[in-house]
Amino acid sequence: MAAHPNTAAPFAGVNATWTYTLGSIVFLFVMLDLITVTQLLARWANSRSGMDLALVLLSVAAAATRIRYCWFLRSDSGSGWPHIGWTIALFAPAIASWALAFAAGEAALFAAAQLWFSGVIFSLVAPPEAPLAAHRGDACALARPAGCGPLR
């Protein structure tokens, strides 16, 4: 029998906090995507343009893969990068939307935002030892000779 039966498991508070944070990240992306898709749908309803419809469809595809990509934040399994297929799926509709932004006129901001949103979630999922170490202020990691040993 345990000495303290009501004692919480170690790190239970941290897990609860991380679950709340992950839910907040997903909620933020859902709301941003809902606003973006709603604005693009309103624009398409007025114009019935093929380009506006393409932007709506690309935005929905980008939103769906972005929300799915958020689930790679669930655990720190140390497995490194997600499968390359998921990363391609994350960026393909966002890049296509960004490319259409050059001809989209007033919808260009919503179209280009898809790439920015996808880049944000990708930077959260990227493992700490990624070659983006200079962005974290760890320029030594890029300049360190191979035989120097670990960073301190």
In short:
By secondary structure, this protein is mostly helical. It is built from five helices and no strands. Mean pLDDT is 78; it is low at 132-152.
Report what the structure shows.
With 152 residues, the protein is mostly helical. Helix content is 64%, strand content 0%. Helix 1 (12-47) packs antiparallel against helix 2 (50-70), helix 2 packs parallel to helix 4 and helix 3 runs antiparallel to helix 4 (108-125). The model is unreliable at 132-152 (pLDDT under 50).
User: What class would the helix/strand composition place it in?
Assistant: mainly alpha
Averaged pLDDT, please?
78
Question: What portion of residues belong to β-strands?
Answer: under 5%
Stretches where pLDDT is under 50 for at least 5 consecutive residues are 132-152
What's the β-strand tally? 0
- End-to-end Cα distance: 43 Å
User: Radius of gyration over alpha carbons?
Assistant: 20 Å
Total count of helical runs of at least 4 residues: 5
| Coarse morphology | elongated
Q: Name the helicity range.
A: 55-70%
Query: How can the largest sheet be summarized?
Result: none
Order of helices and strands: HHHHH
Q: Quaternary status of these chains?
A: single chain
